Amino acid sequence: MSSPSMHQPFRGRTAVVTAAGAGIGRAIAVEWSARGGAVVAADVDIRAARATAAQIRDRGGECIAVAADVTDSSAVPDVVDAALADYDRVDALFNVAGASLPKRVDEMDDADWYRVIDLNLTSVYRASKHVIPQLRRVGGGSIVNISSTAGILAENRCSAYSAAKAGVLMLTRNMAMDYAPDNIRVNAVCPGSTMTPRIKDYLERVPGHGSLLDGLCPMNRYAEPEEIARPAVFLASDEASYITGATLAVDGGLTAGKHFAIFEDA
Ligand SMILES: NC(=O)c1ccc[n+]([C@@H]2O[C@H](COP(=O)([O-])OP(=O)(O)OC[C@H]3O[C@@H](n4cnc5c(N)ncnc54)[C@H](O)[C@@H]3O)[C@@H](O)[C@H]2O)c1
After folding, report:
1. Catalytic, out of 87, 125, 161, 242
2. Which domain holds residue 110?
3. Annotated catalytic residue 222
4. Residues with CB under 6 A from ligand 1
5. pLDDT at 161
6. Which CATH number goes with the domain that contains 158?
7. Closest-lying ligand 1 atom to the alpha carbon of residue 71
8. Is residue 106 part of a domain?
9. Domain count of the chain?
10. Is residue 117, in this structure, part of any structural domain at all?
11. What is the distance between the alpha carbons of residues 56 and 41, in angstroms, rounded to a whole number?
12. Which atom, in ligand 1's list, is nearest to the CA of 100?
């Protein structure tokens, strides 16, 4: 027989989700809420964060929207304060905010480099630093960092982003080791190409974008944001109670291996 706790395992728990206003962040916020948890939806675009909160509340969930730029050190304590004011606790942190910059090393200036590292890597340090004491206070919790397949496989014209996302994977493992004694698990998800509204807009502006799908990954399609959100939320759940320091590629097989056309006819 099923009990309410089976369907709503996160009831009484609160998650902070950065970049919760769209794409993968919004999907994670909605997925966490669907399992009964409260959400603090943080985004640099407060209107987008409010739209996520409205979507969750319309479905009977609990969510507050907070304006926060993850590159601003003073913003993160405000997010934690908002979480404590409304829900009195934080149990999980999803570090989602990030964006790439399509430039080679010689095409970047120092400001480009530091901006990409700050947004994708330093932001994970910054948010985790302020949330960890709260996780400790409630006896433990979970951090899930959204890296990228670009953190595993190098990509063309992607140097700063790839370096930052690879850094996220190592930071994940370091934090997993450091905070295991506090019952805090830290894991990373590496999404492959995901059909977020931003990617959709971009593809619509690229002539002949359909051909870009060829060779995208063995499954030959984009992920839906929900297909990234579900494994991310799983890692933060009790079902993943012995998983820490892990990198979970959710990429349609992209990083599984290299396809050699020559073997097809061998
Ligand atoms: N979409 C993909 O194909 C893909 C693939 C691999 C990894 N990722 C990673 O997943 C994460 C989410 O990507 P997405 O495509 O869903 O994002 P997105 O570009 O759709 O943006 C989602 C939200 O991030 C917010 N945001 C942007 N800068 C911010 C900042 N400085 N502080 C707080 N919020 C900010 C935006 O306002 C927006 O609401 C990123 O870390 C990205 O690198 C995405």
Report:
1. 161
2. 11-195+225-248
3. no
4. 18-19, 21-25, 43-45, 48, 68-71, 96-99, 119, 146, 148, 191, 193-194, 196, 198-199
5. 98
6. 3.40.50.720
7. 31
8. yes
9. 1
10. yes
11. 10
12. 43
